[in-house]
TrEMBL record:
Pfam families: NAS. Its EC number is 2.5.1.43. One of its GO terms (biological process) is nicotianamine biosynthetic process. Keywords: S-adenosyl-L-methionine, Transferase. It catalyses: 3 S-adenosyl-L-methionine = nicotianamine + 3 S-methyl-5'-thioadenosine + 3 H(+). Synthesizes nicotianamine, a polyamine which serves as a sensor for the physiological iron status within the plant, and/or might be involved in the transport of iron. This is Nicotianamine synthase. One of its GO terms (molecular function) is nicotianamine synthase activity. It comes from Glycine soja. It comes from the Eukaryota.
Amino acid sequence: MVCEEELLIEKVCSIYEQISSLESLKPCKNVDMLFTKLVLTCIPPSPIEVTKLNKTVQDIRSHLIKLCGEAEGHLESHYSTILGSYQNPLHHLNIFPYYSNYLKLGLLEFTILSQHCTHVPTKVAFVGSGPLPLTSIVLASNHLPSTTFHNYDMDPSANSNAMRLVSSDPDLSKRMFFHTNDILEVSTALKEYEVVYLAALVGMDKEGKNRIIDHLGKHMNPGALLMLRSAHGARAFLYPVVEPCDLRGFEVLSVFHPSDEVVNSVVIARKLYHPVPMHSLDQQALVGSMILPNKCSEIQAFNPLNHGNMIEELAVEEQLS
């Protein structure tokens, strides 16, 4: 009898074959249908551990993540262009097919952030904001109405598209800034942000992602928060996975795996303060407070919310209020 895991892998590989044979990944009926099918296949909770799969499937997964990233970029550009043609683009965000997911993800991330941030951040950075910076827009509009958002993207056309969306809004045009930079070349500015968000598809393989995390760990202010998106179970065929032990120089505060249609897991970590010299403190007291970020087993990830249900309730409450 074929087990569920094998059936899942077979289905994902079959969809991958169809996607990789497409001439273009720009939005059209066939592209939309295949990616919808892929997402619906990977969304149900699954105990599958993608890092333990054989090399052939690992290679397919790596390529699939890149294809998903490319398709997502085309989709966002397409809708950003349409939205940019409206007089008030922000009044029409619901035309984007995954807008409701961003509302839920924004609320989830704000809820988690509120549990670990003692004050409302004045300055937030979003790395990998793209042509349709929905996370920044949702957070700035619904949850952090006095915070300024600095959006970083390497693509100048993505930034010009994104700027067009907020330029007509009297509030967001004053609080949202766009920087065309490779984040690996940004150092001093990173010290200014109390919270840094890292988009799921910035660093699409393990090596690239870890290089960026290490760079942030080197240049962020001690005590600042890093909010990352990861993936869990079969959803790891769609997005890269960030393990707690990848976060060298950070204390992992919480890991949350949604079980609803929000695809990304959310990881929040705090940049560690410089180690205190051993001679200046009682050794036993120091060991008791030390974080051991290189040992995965030392970090107990926990879910601050129940299976995504609380998120839905909060969203409903917000709409009612």
